[in-house]
TrEMBL record, chains A, B:
The chain holds residues 3 to 202 of 438 of the full protein. It comes from the Eukaryota. It is found in: Nucleus. The gene is Eomes. It comes from Zapornia atra (Henderson crake). This is EOMES protein. Residues 4-189 form the T-box domain.
Length: 200, 200
DNA sequence: CCCTTTTCACCTAGGTGGTAAGAT
DNA sequence: ATCTTACCACCTAGGTGAAAAGGG
């Protein structure tokens, strides 16, 4: 009923334990979450949003080339954990028509971030997180009923788990980002030679 | 109940008869439409959209430094004339919270433009147009009732009239665009000298 | 010592009017 | 002759990881 787009890329990162940068002003995810949905009622209205929850109760650190646990997670961290898709609310037909992309979702470690009106997800560095996709029917008043589970669907893809960091720890992850994120093209090793070679 | 933002700029253009470029791939308006709204029901859902209609029944041409009529307008032109605000549908509270900007609305002369899924407004060159703002209550099924005028409000600002062109005709308009559109900064006369002067 | 923040060069992405060629 | 199209240099806007500086 829900398909995770760009699954092969997510799997590549997951194999090395995905890391996502968090900054004060907010940083996009890469890869970013994108889904295709089927099976909704075309005329019913839904809110679609991503929530990011702790994936385990540990604090993590990168030591000797590996991620190891290091005490308990701060579970009582405050801060927004939800990013409502900007096209919400909308009809089932709308959500099923094309991919639902969360490419502009931003992660931050700034607790006071959502005072400006850009919703960002507030995370804690060196904690492991699991994104979740929620699809919630909207009543005629436009109000969600989160207690009525029959009107809420939640989807989890373990391949999208990641550890929040302020700087990359595993160089394998850094290289995957450079290789696949268009905005990091300038850091690709062969970038200069691609052009110097063609000058002959 | 509805205020046109950036009114002084619109007035400057209007005094010289505003022109808007239309291209095959679509061109943004400058100035662009932006409104502030009050008086909606905070919990009711509304669609907000702009429609662009013929402002008069004439075909126009620019001759001897002035716009003059030149035959009748092609009123049976087909093509989409509506741009639904991307945040539609949404609550009255949402629409009243901040300015409603149509900065990404694009004008085109390509009748087959809306096959790709970017809604553009299709216009005919050398015709005069009047943008109109519509606010329509959405029923519980998410369907508009355009026949029930009590649920539709329409607002018209004569200062936003413009003639669609494929190339600017009046140099006064060109200069106003260059002076005020950030993307045209490279064409400002004083752009180079701003920097050469500071090199001393 | 480990983690975070700031700044930077370098890139993607795309919005300008000018210009010359094309179309009618 | 008049209007349209395609391409261009030049800009805005903002997303990258690297590196150095800052902080506890």
């Amino acid at each position: 009923q829900v398909m995770l787009n760009n699954y092969p890329l997510w799997a590549k990162f997951h194999k090395h334990q995905t890391e996502m940068i968090i900054t004060k002003q907010g940083r996009r995810m890469f890869p970013f979450l994108s889904f295709n949905i089927t099976g909704l009622n075309p005329t019913t209205h839904y809110n679609v949003f991503v929530e990011v929850v702790l994936a385990d109760p540990n604090h993590w650190r990168f030591q000797g080339g590996k991620w190891v646990t290091c005490g308990k997670a701060d579970n009582n961290m405050q801060g927004n954990k939800v990013y409502i898709h900007p096209e919400s609310p909308n009809t089932g037909a709308h959500w099923m028509r094309q991919e639902i992309s969360f490419g502009k979702l931003k992660l931050t470690n700034n607790k006071g971030a959502n005072n400006n009106n850009a919703q960002m997800i507030v995370l804690q560095s060196l904690h492991k997180y699991q994104p979740r996709l929620h699809i919630v029917e909207v009543t005629e008043d436009g109000v969600e009923d989160l207690n009525d589970s029959s009107k809420t669907q939640t989807f989890i893809f373990p391949e999208t788990q990641f550890i929040a960091v302020t700087a990359y720890q595993n160089t394998d992850i850094t290289q995957l980002k450079i290789d696949h994120n268009p905005f990091a093209k300038g850091f690709r090793d062969n970038y200069d030679s691609m052009y110097t070679a063609s000058e002959n």
